[in-house]
Amino acid sequence: MTGSAARLQAAIADYLVHLRVERGLAPATLRAYGGDLAAFSSDPVVARGWDRSVEPATRYLSRSAAGAGQGGRPLRSTSLRRRAASIRGFYRFAYGDELIATDLAARIDLPRQTRLLPDPLDIEATNRLLEAAGGAVVGEGRAGATTPAAVEPARLRDRALLELLYAAGLRISEALNLDREDLSLDGAFVRVIGKGNKERLVPVGEIALEWLVRYLDDVRPAWLARRAGDPIRGGPLFLTSRGKRLGRQVAWTVVKRAARDAGLGDRVTPHTLRHSFATHLLEGGADLRIVQELLGHASISTTQLYTHLSGERIKEVYARAHPRA
């Protein structure tokens, strides 16, 4: 390894420590940045000249966009933008720490970001999805809520998970990282650590709470007893039958199975419930700023993607609000 390449590797390692310790980025974000910078530093042209000119970086990004890099396929616009942001952030750090003499970051442009509209479910389809996750429901509970029927333990956990995703609009990673102490049944809220290690408290509705209580009373204690040692902070909220924290792949499979059983096809993902949560709140008259806080969005421009109301809904609001409608 040349001296320039060795300095690049050391600088990237320092940058990742900076992101973890000082910026508090989430582990998944750190892995993404680390992967982007590992691919960047493995390019021979970059390794030789990264600290003298911005040209190796811009050429590298151009080749990535054209599919001339690793794997031979062009990067998607979102992946290319993230990779460019990773490299620009690294150069900004290197300049600030005087590892390079020129502010090369200022000469790296980010590709235009493509904003895809969310694809939420309507309320009827959401109800079908939730019921498919945990079996049939019978009877009437408080405030018209349904009472869970007898279901197998894993399906009861699945229903509780999906009900919480929809009731609180959580990202799947946020839900799976919850510990038991993060859920307040008396207060009817959940404490969430979101992107950038930011904490927020999100209300949880009655129906979701009823499914969570059923899971906590009838399923979780037996599964938790299979863990070795005393659980920290009450242990993970959502468990496997072996007492381990539920993983993303299993949760993804749970949602896909429920969508298939509900006849909703392949378009449903765990994030669909978050989209549906936001859309249904806004269509119900919730303030955009409140929805932003509930979702944990840093910028309201992200939340505004959910304001794509239907034509009929716009006409309805206009007719109700305009004095001469």
Q: How does this model look, in words?
A:
- The chain is mostly helical and 325 residues long.
- The chain folds into 2 domains: 3-107, DNA polymerase, domain 1 (Orthogonal Bundle), CATH 1.10.150; 123-318, Intergrase catalytic core (hpI Integrase, Chain A).
- Helix content is 54%, strand content 5%.
- It has 15 helices and 5 strands.
- It has helices spanning 3-21, 27-41, 44-49, 55-66, 77-96, 123-134, 153-168, 172-176, 206-218, 220-224, 248-261, 270-283, 288-295, 300-303, 311-321; strands at residues 137-138, 147-148, 183-184, 189-193, 199-203.
- The chain has a 3-stranded antiparallel β-sheet, with no helix packed on it. A two-stranded antiparallel sheet has the order 1-2.
- A hairpin with an 8-residue loop joins β1 (137-138) and β2.
- α1 (3-21) runs antiparallel to α2 (27-41) and α7 packs antiparallel against α9.
- The longest helix is centred in the N-terminal third of the chain and has 20 residues, at 77-96.
- The N and C termini lie far apart (73 Å).
- Mean pLDDT is 85; it is low at 137-149.
